[in-house]
Amino acid sequence: MADCLSCPEHSNSTAGSEYCFCKSGMYWNNTSCFLCPEMSASHEGALNCTTCPPGSTSIINGTSCTCPEGLMWILDEEGIGSCQPCPTDTWKDRNMLICSSCPEVSTSMPGSTRCSCSEGKIWRNSSCLNCVPGTYRNQLMSVCTECSSTSVSQDGAERCIECPPGSLAMPNRTICLCPKGMVWTWSNKTLGSCTICPENTYPSSDTSACLPCPLFSTSAAGSSACSCIAGTFTNANRTCSVCPSGTSSKAGSDHCSCPAGTFWNSTQCKKCPSYQISQTGSLQCQTCPQGTSPSRNQTECSCPHGTEWNWTAQNIGFCAFCPVNFYKSAQMLSCAPCLPHSTSAAGSSACSCIAGTFRNANRTCSVCPSGTSSKAGSGHCSCPAGTFWNKTSCQACEGSSVSKIGALKCQRCPLGAVPDKARSSCSCLNGVWTWGNHGNGSCVSIKTSQLSSHHILTVTLQACTTAFMAVGLLLLSVFLCRKWKGRQGVREDVRILYTPGGETVHIGDPEGGQERSTQVGEAEGGGEEGREAARGEGARQVDNEICQSEEIEEKLSENIYDDMDH
Q1: d(CA 276, CA 285)
Q2: Which residues of 393-420 are buried (b: 16+ CB within 10 A; e: fewer)?
Q3: Any idea what DSSP says for residue 100?
Q4: In contact, 184 and 194? CB cutoff 8 Å
Q5: Spatial separation of the C-alpha atoms in residues 349 and 331, rounded to whole Å
Q6: Given Cys at both, which of 51, 359, 453, 545 links 491, Cβ 3.0 to 4.6 Å?
Q7: Which residues are within 8 A (CB) of 552 and not within 5 positions of it... i.e. 6 or more apart?
Q8: Cα end-to-end distance, the chain, whole Å
Q9: Nearest in space to 299 (alpha carbons), one of 274, 277, 331
């Protein structure tokens, strides 16, 4: 067996081989192995070097050529190398020598320089990564883009979703800021909404979750916060503590209170002295104002009618007037509103029916029947003058009958009298129409002592005026006008001697007092001289007694002048 020889430098052989072969990046020149020239490469055992294709270079040791992105150096069956596209679902960038397989959930076309990731992922650091919450995959740029200020997204989102109208996104664009009492809930990666927090929970500060209410507190569904239950209070730590013994609190209160009629003496609730009062939560008791006294439970002072006890914000009590349309009688503790169709002024002890209504048997106010009317505070409704109440409605008087306001029947005018246009009175031929106190009317003659005071004064002043002005050929014997006393509308004594043509007409003088007259004709000798004497004496007596009476002028002038105009 022949001896084995060592292979030349830079060459190798396999066991039992009859020849040696050069290493990659070298070639055999019949005597030894030499490095491939620049821009060429060879594989192990190659007899020659292959020139690298345009756009590529050889690596430092010449073992292969570096192909452009998406291409890889591949040897054919004859050992000749060339740059070939990376196969499907592989990739190669400029820093790689060979093509690499794409990660899961990604693909590539032949000759790709990167892999295409699935929805919500981007190609980053040779792998497919999710877009972080608050961003979405921009398909055109294959990058993660931040959501707008009114939209949000979850991890790996392909797009952002808009927040409900009127709300904004959190700064990190991961959830929407919901209205009070609501939190943002994701249904899936592409759908979210604001939902109401259930009962006894409240929203977290970032409105991302509903948290349970702390001990001794509660909340209604949709509440933005929990509140302390009754009998507890909110302490300095913003939690709920139980009220001390003897005190109480309303739900949601930040303090506990002593009951009315007591006060807090720094350690416990203590009863007020018998002559003082207090309201719930008082720190001290108050003495009732003069003229009032404490109630039995010492919670308020008894106020006069038309007023009620009030407390100020500073825990000071006083008697305040009942407001308009409220009332309080002496037996009531507080002001009450007036019933329908009634009214009252401030400080009233009772309400009165408004005009157009009346107080019924139940002491309430009812609307007057159609066609009737009433004054404010009235106890009944009235038909207008010229009508009467026929138990169901106001009926007009007929024929020669008349009626006054509120009449229950019509009255026929006496013989010789006719109704006026409104049928409210009769026009008398001799005398004037007068309604009596009981609703009956009659024609009253001016020659009778039964004349009403108003009409007697009317005639008196007319006579005085006639004498004073000496109008016409009327012969006056004497005017004796004693002063009129207006006390309660009672006539004490008025007498006129009206003597046209020498005749005397007596009006008044019920007491039968002494006449002070001068008879025309025989008494003065008759003729023009007698008449002149009568006129002078009458004028003087009128001037001295009636015509200077301010009492008559002030009290009755309006009615008198009305009659004179007619």
Answers
A1: 6
A2: ebbebeebbbbbebbeebbebeeebebe
A3: E
A4: yes
A5: 10
A6: 453
A7: 457, 461, 483, 484, 486, 546
A8: 179
A9: 277
Instruction: Answer whether 203's CB lies under 8 Å from 178's CB.
Output: yes
Structure tokens at 371: 């066609």
- 424 token code pair: 């409210």
Please give the Cα distance from 235 to 229 (Å, whole number). 13
pTM over 0.85? The answer is no
Q: Which of 397, 534, 552 is nearest to 474 (CA)?
A: 534
d(CA 94, CA 309): 95
CB atoms within 10 A of CB 28: 20
As given in the structure block, the two tokens for residue 144 are 């993660």
Q: How confident is the model at residue 11 (pLDDT cuts 50, 70, 90)?
A: confident
3-state secondary structure of 211: strand
* Residue 327 near residue 338, CB atoms below 8 Å: yes
Q: What angle do CA 119, 121, 124 make, to 5 degrees?
A: 150
- pLDDT, tens digit, 9 for 90 and up, residues 427-450: 987 788 888 877 788 888 765 444
Contacts of 331 (CB under 8 A, 6+ apart): none
Whether 470 contacts 508, CB under 8 Å: no
Q: What is the DSSP string of 156-186?
A: T-SS-EEPPTT--B-TTSSSB-PPTTEEEEE
Residue type, 459: V
Q: Residue 453 has which token pair?
A: 């005071």
**In degrees rounded to 5, what are phi and psi of residue 328?**
-155, 120
Find out whether 450 and 431 touch, Cβ atoms under 8 Å: no
